[in-house]
C-alpha cells in the first residue's frame, strides 16, 4: 500500500508536482516575453501609422512638445486648437481607453460623447481599421506624458451649437471602415486606404461648400481652409494629376519632395518632410499606383485649345512684368523660363504656375519657395521671399507675366489678389 506524504500526494505524484513547479515559471516567463514582444511590435506599428497620418503635424505647436497640442487652426467658423494627446492624466489622454480613442477616430465623438468638429479629419479617419487604431493608441500611450493645458476653441456663434453639428454630421458624415475593392489589386487598395483614409489627402485636395464640407472624394483640388494656399487637383493633368507619370516618378516626389517634373512647397512640402518621406517603399508605391489610376480615369486632356489674339491692353499689362522678371527671377529661372534641372524648377510649361488658381505662385513670390529637407534631398535649393523688396503691384505684374510667357496660358493677377492672398505663413 502506497503512503501519501503530508502534502497528500504519493511519492510518484510528488515527483511530477516537483517537475511541474520547476517548469511552470519557465512557461510563464515565455508567455510574458511573447506578450511583451507583441506589445512592442504594436507600439512600433502605431508609431509608423501615426507618422503616416501626420498626427504630430497637427498636435504640435511651433517650438512645442510633440503631441502636446496647442496648434491653432483658423477657419470661417472660428479658431480651433489641437488637443494634447500625450498620456497625461489631467491634460491629455491618460484616462482614455482603446474604446475612447476608437470613438474619436471612427465616429468623431469625444470621450464624453459630445460631437467633435470636423477640423479634426474624422471624416477620413473613419476609414481606419480597428487594428490600426488600437496600434496608434498603444503608441500614444507609450509617450512621455506632457502636462499642457491648451486654449479652448474660439467658435463663432451660432456654430458653437451641438445640435447644428448634429445636423452637419447627418448631412455630410458617413462613418465606415475602408472596404477593399476586390476588382483592384493589392497595391491599389492599400494606396486607396492610405490616400483616402489614414493620409486624409481629401482634407486638403477637395473643394468645400459654404459649410466646410468636402463636396466629393475625387481629390479635385481646393483652397486649404485658413492657410491661404491652394491644394491642386490630383486628377487633372492641368494641375497635379499624375496619370501620365511613372510610379517611380511619383514615389520620388512623395519621398523627396522633388523630381524632374515638380517641386513641392508650402503645406505639401511640410507633409513630405514630416510624414511621407518616412513611409515604406511598399506603401509609397501603393500610393503612387492609386494616384496614377485617378489621373488615368479622370483625364481631362482634349484637343489643344485655339488661343485668341491677345488684346493690346493685356499685352501692355504683361509687359510691365517683364523687367521685374529680368531683375529678380531670370538669374535662377532663365531667360526663357527654362530653369536648371534638379535645382531651379522651370517656369515654362509648369503646371503649378499656370493652374486656374494663381494663389500658390503669388505666395511663393511673397514668402519664398522652400522644398522640404529629406533624406533623398538633404540640401534643397530654395527661393527667397520678395515681399520686402517688391510692391504688390509688381508682384501682380510678374506673376501675370510668367503665367503667360513662353507658351504659358493663365489668368492675369491684380494687386488686390496679391493683397488678399496674404496670411500667416504655414
Give structural notes.
It is a single chain. A hairpin with a 4-residue loop joins β4 (222-224) and β5. The protein has helices at 11-52, 55-58, 98-107, 122-125, 130-142, 162-172, 186-198, 247-256, 266-274, 281-297, 312-328, 330-333, 351-354, 359-367, 392-402, 415-420, and strands spanning 72-75, 78-81, 154-155, 222-224, 229-231. The strands form two sheets. It has a three-stranded antiparallel β-sheet with strand order 1-2-3, with no helix packed on it. It has a two-stranded antiparallel ribbon with strand order 4-5. 43% of the residues lie in helices and 4% in strands. The protein starts with 10 loop residues before the first helix and ends in a 6-residue tail after the last helix. The protein is mainly α and 426 residues long. The chain is globular and about 70 Å long.
Detail the poorly predicted runs: 15-20, 298-303
Strand content: under 5%
**Radius of gyration over C-alpha positions, nearest whole angstrom:** 27 Å
Total DSSP E strands: 5
Short description:
This protein is mainly alpha-helical and 426 residues long. Helix content is 43%, strand content 4%.
Compile the SSE list and pairings.
Layout: H1 11-52, H2 55-58, E1 72-75, E2 78-81, H3 98-107, H4 122-125, H5 130-142, E3 154-155, H6 162-172, H7 186-198, E4 222-224, E5 229-231, H8 247-256, H9 266-274, H10 281-297, H11 312-328, H12 330-333, H13 351-354, H14 359-367, H15 392-402, H16 415-420
Antiparallel strand pairs: 1-2, 2-3, 4-5
Helix pairs in contact: 1-5, 3-5, 7-10, 8-10, 11-15
Descriptive labels:
426 residues
